[in-house]
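Quick question, first post here. What does this chain look like in 3D?
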Amino acid sequence: MENHKRVLAFIYIISGSLQILGMILLATLVESIMPFISEQADPDAQWVFTWLVPFIRTIAIGVVLILAIPAIIAGVGLLNQKSWALTLALVLGCLKLFSFPIGTAIGIYTIWIYAGNNKIKSQTA
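> Answer (accepted):
Ran it through. Tokens below.
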């Protein structure tokens, strides 16, 4: 089971890093495209772009803070065999279940490891 925890740790570190990278690329793309789009817009509709870009930036930062950074923390905790890390990974795995198909696979794998770890603990007690 320890090998599975290490694999899960690397999965969470990589998925969190890819989410951060994806959000940075998305924010850069939006920042670079919005001036061209706003030039083509009606002058009366310019206010939409002054609100849209900060809104998209806020959502990207929120996703990173809620999902990506805790995933990296859970992965590092699992690598260091911290007791809280598997619980954090379980919470994040449940959230990842809604991200079909890769997130669903990660979530199922996390639940399987958590259930197996608790089964081992109950047998030794």
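The mean pLDDT is 87.
Residues 2-40 form the longest helix (39 residues).
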